[in-house]
Amino acid sequence: MIKLVYMSADLHIHSSFSDGTETPTQIVQKSKAAGLEIISITDHDTIAGIPEAFAAAQGTGVEVIPAVELSTELDKSELHIIGYFIDQKNGELLSLLKKRQNGRRERIYKIFNLLKNIGIEIDPKEAFDLAGHESAGRPHVARVLIKNGIAANIKDAFRNYLTPGKPAYVPHFVLHPKEAIETIKKSGGCSVLAHPAVSNRDDLIPELIGYGLCGIEVYYTSHREEQIKHYIQVAKKYGLHITGGSDYHGENSGREIKLGDFKFDKALVEELKK
Ligand code: AMP
Ligand code: FE
Ligand code: FE
Ligand code: ZN
To answer: 235 and 216 in contact (C-beta within 8 Å)?
Structure first.
């Protein structure tokens, strides 16, 4: 039997409800134009953009899978966990997200305080206004620094101010992957380890599986051919589902990629659904 491969899925996209620059409606429209059939909005710490994505997808033939991306920390490494097929009404998930969003808001104030300490005085309100919500992140701060003539571009802002060891770096409050994965599980979702080659901590995968990890993002914009081959083997070894995503953040986000440049086999999403 011939197995048909439809390269038409992208399960990792950020909207303006977190740190992307485009609305869920714009993302769905661009996905349709780019030939994507299955997409996921994977905003950081929020599911608020999903209803708009569902509404925009009506009648377009684009399927939207509800999801959320959580930054967790284990053994001093940042591990991003994406929950797919989550129940958007689940109380425990909502309360975890609320906690994360409050943490993000406090963190923005701390970042601007640190900037003030080094003589850069900017009202944190600028970041919240730019984001259009209170769950802002470092990319919003980076854009505010550019607007105020402090940084030349996003990369520059991260490199000089916002990364570990730099004067305005503030980590997230620590979320253990156990809590993230168990909460996603309780909401009926499947937890996937995002961009494993970026975190580069294969040694922690068995522990994550112990907490209930069910998949791994093998296909990813910055994953090289040999890394993809390696993570296919890892997935096989542990019986993990294989997913893929672009991590698109919009066209003016400081990242080069366009929606539709990255696509993976939608048959793998059917596997995930089961
Ligand atoms: P936060 O969740 O607020 O810590 O911000 C993390 C987000 O910042 C990531 O999801 C990326 O969108 C973005 N990001 C992280 N590092 C960089 C970088 N070096 N240059 C540009 N964007 C970055
Ligand atoms: Fe992001
Ligand atoms: Fe991530
Ligand atoms: Zn992401």
So the answer is: yes
pLDDT in tens, 49-63: 999 999 999 999 999
Q: How far is the CA of 254 from the centre of ligand 1 (A)?
A: 10
Nearest CA to ligand 1 atom 6: 138
Distance 199 CA to ligand 3 centre (A): 9
The DSSP result for 160-201, as a single string, is IIISTTSTT--PPPP--HHHHHHHHHHTT-EEEE--HHHHT-
- Choice from 78, 138, 155, 257 to test ligand 1 binding pocket (greatest atom count within 8 A of CB): 138
Task: Read off the pLDDT of each residue in 242-248 and give the average, rounded to a whole number.
Answer: 98
Q: How far apart are CA 154 and CA 212, in angstroms?
A: 35
- 123-151 mean pLDDT: 97
Digit-coded pLDDT (tens) for 81-116: 999 999 999 999 999 999 999 999 999 999 999 999
pTM attached to this predicted model: 0.96
Distance 51 CA to ligand 1 centre (A): 25
Helices marked H in 34-80: 50-57
Q: For residue 259, which of 40, 6, 68 has the smallest C-alpha distance?
A: 40
